[in-house]
Amino acid sequence: MPVLDLVNEALREWINPYYYGIFLVMGINMILAMSLNLVTGFTGQLHLGHAGFMAIGAYTAGILATKGGAAFLPAVLAGGVAAAFFGFVVGLPTLRLRGDYLAIATLGFGEIVRIAILNLDITGGAFGLRGIPRLTNLPIVIIAVLLTYVILHSLIRSRVGRAFIAIREDEVAASAMGIETTRMKVTAFVLAAFFAGVAGGLYAFWFRFISPGSFGFLLSIEILSMVVLGGLGNLLGSVLGAGFITYLPELLRTSVPAVAQHRMVFYGALLVLAMIVRPNGLLGTSSEQGWLEMWLARRKAKHAARGPARLEAAAPGQDGADGRSGE
Amino acid sequence: MFFWQLVLSGLSIGSLYAVVGLGIVLLYRTSRVLNFAHGDLAMVTTMIAYSLLTSAGVVFAGSVALTLLAAFALGSLFYFIVIRPVKEATLLGQIITTAGFALVLGGAAVVIWGAGTKALPFPLSRFRFYDVFGLRIDQLTIGSFIVSVITMLLLYLLVQKTKFGLAMRAVSQNDAAARVLGIPVRRVYAVTWGVSAVLGAIGGLLLAPVTFVSPTMMFDPFLKGFAAAVLGGLDSLPGVIIGGVILGVVENVFGGYVSTAFKSTVAFVMIIAVLLVRPEGLLGRKFQRRV
Known about the structure:
The complex is a heterodimer.
Chain A: H1 2-14, H2 17-42, H3 50-67, H4 72-94, H5 99-119, H6 138-157, H7 159-169, H8 171-176, H9 181-207, H10 217-230, H11 235-255, H12 257-261, H13 263-277, H14 291-311, H15 318-325
Chain B: H1 2-31, H2 38-53, H3 60-83, H4 91-113, E1 129-132, E2 135-138, H5 139-161, H6 163-173, H7 175-180, H8 185-211, H9 219-232, H10 237-257, H11 266-277
């Protein structure tokens, strides 16, 4: 598309190449985080294998482009569809059950994908897949991020999206209200897999070289950290979380290299702390309360109770009751 | 003969999967928490054993005793520091918490012990063979099989024959009622976390001579332990043992006849198949939703 090329030329003139690359990866991570948020944040199902779906998208697009001579858009979309197909295969048996089964199955699925890529001939095994043309550029990624946001945002505002949220809040109640919970959960999961596949395709057409090591378990956790940091059930939060977590290692690389090197410890601590202090993340929307909210609510209650209590201080026994209400 | 050879080594590795899986199931039964840090806890305790054996120069039996103690302490400490504060959290919150803790442990191991692979000095050898009914078995295989069976027996006695085991079962049935009856629920949870970590540590120690000691050594066995648990039923202790043994044998036979490279995928294909046909696992109770 000539217009996009023109915009791209302008952007390349304007942004230095280092930041151009970072922004591009940020955009890909934003798509990954938003799609994971659909499953984990909005529907409340923990998914630990998002990188596996990204890998399927990346390899499908990469193989179609190098061995089949496919054009950019069909290859990327095919990557998304392939990922969605596998999402259906994994999601259907596991999503009928309690949420923890999905976590195990997706964790295992990510490993299967890695092992399969490592041992198949068509993927190039451990040497990776080379010679993919560089067709992804920043304007395309920006458009993809916007499209993902708009699609997911309107989905969440729709009937289906409300069903997702109802399942997260109380699956039994949701099912009692006539929501087909399994079907809805599979829908969310398959859609998320599609977007992860598309993100994988964009990734392949940018880095031109993909290997199984790029899509490990740690990447899945990194995406989960973006979602949790930004807020479970908040799309814009995922965008910010992805931006922050992508930029952080770059920022720390020069100032505190030790932290950048061991950043998984940081992500782990972040996840644990977030769950203790603010389970919905910085901008979460779930109805669940963390320590911070409870503490704030308690303080508020205390202040509210103290006001009138002082006026009626003459009443005997009031102090004891007041003290207890602050507990 | 080749087939029985595969079955035999499958039995041995399967019993290790079962030991790792038992830790997961024991905890899940009692507290309904699926511990994604189980593998990393086991890895860290194996690392501790490595340090005791090499730099500290403690004798093997002493190192093992100290390691198991450390595992117990780490497990119950984790309960008090991390799990209790998020006790009110949803299922999702609890899993994210344990997964986050796994990352912290894995990262800490890299910082303390380095990312490299180390050999744990182990008294049993993989290269001394015995002839049993015409099959060649190495010393380590026999040893780890015997230790796993003893571990399972001890766990059985703990859960079924002691007062503590009774308390544990009571808490898993209904923790509010158990509290009313005067069972120290918190202590039961903490000890369960400790015992679960000890089971992981035993698995880690027995796997160390095969996989060597490294920060990622337990990732695969942990997934297999999970697979064994799902296969047998997440809340059934005998189930996970049967699941582990089946998994070990099937995986080994597949590796011997079909493909070594795809051996590790067998476990997950089996999980998916079991979940499709019999979601509660081989010996698990039927799913009941508590409203």
